[in-house]
Amino acid sequence: MVTTDPQAGPAAARPGSPGLLGQLVRFGLIGGFCALLDFGSYSALLALGMSGVPWVDVARAISFVIGTTTAFFLNRRFTFAAGQRGGAGQVGGFALLYTVTFFVAVGVNRAMLALLSAASSSGWETTIAWAVSQATATTINFVMLKWVVFREPRP
Question: Which residues contact 51 (CB under 8 A, 6 or more apart)?
């Protein structure tokens, strides 16, 4: 059979998984870029006046959507080889995963802001709360993307 579709070639022609270490490195680099995008948009929204309740939560939600949507597409392309073979199941898995981590990120951010604001007023509360919420969501995302959403078929 002759085809002009580059995706229709034999499975051997598709790029393989870079392995767990390679995936962690790529995920980390992409995550770092997307975290800067997330935090930059969060900071910009706060600077535009969204620093009071409930607007701080809206700002965190918007920044989360910007960062994680970018991360999904970059990780799908560069980190997880199985991402290039997905379909509706991956989109559904992505939607479910990011819905859960959305609420985790916003909830952890809110809890950390309350906890840190009660403990001190150093001016770093917003940054620390964002970092903790981001680290929590990132950990959940890697585990679920690798072993659920972009799960590679067994050989």
Answer: 59, 126
pTM: 0.70
Letter for the amino acid at 120?
Answer: S
Structure-token match 């995920």, residue found: 27
- How do the domains of the chain map onto residue ranges? 18-149
Average pLDDT in the chain: 83
Dump the DSSP string for 32-89.
HHHHHHHHHHHHHHHHTT--STTHHHHHHHHHHHHHHHHHHHHHHHHT-GGGGG--HH
Q: Is 105 exposed, middle or buried (0-12, 13-18, 19+ CB in 10 A)?
A: buried
